[in-house]
Amino acid sequence: MRVLVTRPEPGAAETKARLIERGFEPLILPLTKTVPLQPDIAKTLVDVVAVTSPNAIRHAPGSILDALKDKPVYAVGIRTGREARSAGLDVVNEDAGDAEGLTRRIDADFAAPCHVTVLCGRVRRDVLEMRLKAAGHLPRLIEIYDTLPLEPSAMEIEKVLGEAPVDAVLLHSANGAVQFCRLMRDPFTRTKLLGATFYCLSQRIADALQPIAPKRTEIAASPSEESLLSLLAPKG
Predict the structure, then answer these.
(1) Nearest Cα to 58, choosing from 31, 76, 90, 82?
(2) Residues 6 or more apart in contact with residue 111 via CB below 8 angstroms
(3) What are the structural domain ranges in the chain?
(4) In this predicted model, what pLDDT tens digit does every residue of 45-63 receive, in sequence order?
(5) Domain 35-147 falls under CATH 3.40.50.10090
(6) Domain 2-31+151-229: assigned CATH number
(7) How many CA atoms, within 13 angstroms, populate the side-chain half-sphere of residue 225?
(8) Which residues of the chain are modeled with pLDDT < 50?
């Protein structure tokens, strides 16, 4: 089973390894990339830290990590928690799953108003900060990285997809899905993906595919890669 991976590096390489372990043939074609923003951290009150993705740790300057080492950290998921712990942060919760879950866990453990420092990306939904504010907390966002589109050339696409059809496409973000819709304007790409099933990490990502209206779309039960990969089943 040939599986197209569209997420940025280094996540794409991690997904590739997991696919190989499961007996699939991964095809790596990142459609976005993450770049650091080098923000500063002003001296202010910090009761708790919320981290929304592994990239918010990978791209964080040492000055920010050092300033937050003694603060309790709530991570959106296990992979994010692992990155934060490796960076020396004090991870106390890593099973929230999404922004709503992060808010519920912080709200359960800290009385409002609580000063929440959020390490996040520039391209994001505003769910976490809005939920925290609605609960009476005081979020302060530090944008650690940006997400930029990638436009692979026709030669790059043909090299990755090869001669055989693609059986499955993994989509980890709405930004990646938007880029993928642009990719599908190419006749060669459309031909290779005629029989593919599109596996999305969330309903929002699936909704972003509406311009190409894929016939076969499946959505992970929870916003984790383990849940996403569990949808894949080898043919035959």
Answers:
(1) 82
(2) none
(3) 2-31+151-229, 35-147
(4) 999 999 999 999 999 999 9
(5) yes
(6) 3.40.50.10090
(7) 20
(8) 235-236
